[in-house]
Amino acid sequence: MGRAERGRTESLNRGRPTVSVTCIADGWAHRVPDIELTSEMSQSDGYYQAVCGHRVAAASMVEPDGRPCPLCTEMCRTTRS
Q1: 81: Cβ–Cβ under 8 A, 6 or more apart, which residues?
Q2: DSSP type of residue 60
Q3: CA angle at residue 77 from 23 to 51, to 5 degrees?
């Protein structure tokens, strides 16, 4: 997923949208519920909980996304079916 698609959201768990966020620790582009990005708790420490359970430390948002996390991708695909 490239920079042009960064703002695109996908549906997860009854319509909860997710956003692709690349983690500086593992380089994967994880799917993070958009509510995680706006919650006060997440803003205080800079970490976000991905749908796969990984705790994401967001990389620079001006860089292209990393490779999609296979587990996030599968979980999003499964919940949409």
Answers
A1: none
A2: P
A3: 35
Residue with tokens 């620790």: 25
Interatomic CA distance for residues 20 and 2, integer angstroms: 10
Return all residues near 17 (Cβ < 8 A) that are at least 6 apart.
9, 10, 11, 33, 34
Domain boundaries along the sequence of the chain? 3-80
Copy the structure tokens of residue 19.
Answer: 């956003």
What pLDDT, in 10s, does the model give residues 21-60?
999 999 999 999 988 888 765 555 778 999 999 999 999 8
Instruction: Locate 26 and state its tokens.
Output: 């593992």
Q: How far apart are CA 71 and CA 77, in angstroms?
A: 10
